[in-house]
């Protein structure tokens, strides 16, 4: 009758579908792994830049305070 042949074709079709789904999941896994790695690198670089800016800001504030102190000291001496 044709039932056995149809069943065999259905089985092969299901196997192909499962193979395709496995390949898709492997691709998604690779993508997610790369995304996590990229996000970690981005966060690390952002932290590094933030720390450099903080150091620069702190040194600028110290320089400003130092300059103001010198001007104040000179005005006291001269005034």
Describe it for me?
The protein has 79 residues and is mainly α. The chain is built from 1 helix and no strands. The protein has one domain.
Please supply descriptive tags for the structure shown above.
single chain; 79 residues; mainly alpha; 1 helix
What's the gist of this structure?
With 79 residues, this protein is mostly helical.
Write the layout of secondary structure elements.
Layout: H1 3-78
Distance between the termini: 116 Å
Task: Show unreliable segments.
Answer: none
How many distinct domains?
1
Provide the residue-averaged pLDDT. 80
């Amino acid at each position: 009758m044709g039932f056995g042949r149809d069943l065999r074709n259905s089985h092969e079709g299901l196997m192909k579908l499962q193979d395709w789904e496995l390949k898709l999941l492997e691709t998604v896994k690779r993508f997610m792994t790369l995304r996590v790695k990229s996000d970690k690198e981005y966060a690390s670089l952002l932290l590094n830049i933030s720390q450099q800016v903080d150091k620069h800001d702190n040194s600028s504030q110290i320089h400003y305070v130092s300059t103001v102190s010198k001007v104040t000291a000179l005005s006291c001496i001269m005034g």
